[in-house]
Amino acid sequence: MVADPLRPTSEPWPGMEAVRRLIAQARSIFVLTGAGISAESGVPTFRDAMTGLWERFNPEELASEEAYRRQPELVWEWYLHRRALVAAAHPNPAHHALAALAAQKHVTLVTQNVDGLHQRAGSQHVIELHGNLFANKWLDGCGRCDEASALPGMPPRCHLCGALMRPGVVWFGEDLPRVARFRAEHAAQTSDLCLVVGTSGLVYPAAALPGLAKEHGAPVIVINPLPSALDQTADLVVPAAAGALLPLLWPQPGMEPD
Ligand code: NAD
Fold first, then answer.
1. Active-site residue numbers?
2. Is the pTM of the predicted complex or chain greater than 0.85?
3. Which of 59, 87, 219, 228 has the maximal Cβ count within 10 Å?
């Protein structure tokens, strides 16, 4: 094989070879991703400083039902801004690498992200714990509200009952969708390896899943360039950016194995 001058020849991150071996040996892999995996696609994480018009807001104060009831126009506009940002973004090598892994292993991909970039990279059956940025639902709907009853506005309202349309994401303080949570917990308990990518590990109950996997015997690998709250649960921490590291961990389509 001709050496690729752009590809590192020795282990660029401590722990990388051990992670490769664990992945190669695993039959079923539980993957938990967070906002960090989309950072290299240009989608800001919540812990990044908010930019432009939004820099004076704290996302935790916008992403809640209470905030929406208080300032629906402001919160709806923030979601429109995020929808536009994500619509213009593209999946990065980390999203593509995880889609490729599912062709080689039994993978359960559980994400806290609402951006749909895993699906756009080709991952199927993604478990979205926090909903999807492009979905809508109703706040205090009458049961007859639907897209056809929506009056355009900021935000749209149901012309039958006046209910507000809201984004179909899970806000701080809300329960996770039951089926998604059940499927994620089941996979955490039954997989033989747990890979955690790009999450601060601060948002529960998602952050409890790696601990659950560990209790059921799965080694836990954390991939994050910065320390995270899940480092103490991890058997191995690789301090790397996901888009740079993940494609080096298992064979990728179109690349010769080395
Ligand atoms: P977070 O913002 O709390 O943490 C992001 C983590 O990613 C940090 O630990 C950071 O060090 C790490 N990171 C940054 N760049 C990285 C890279 N290139 N590779 C790997 N890791 C990297 O995000 P969270 O833990 O997912 O939790 C916050 C909540 O924010 C979630 O509920 C999620 O729904 C929501 N959120 C989602 C998106 C999205 O869908 N893209 C964006 C912002 C926030």
1. 130
2. yes
3. 228
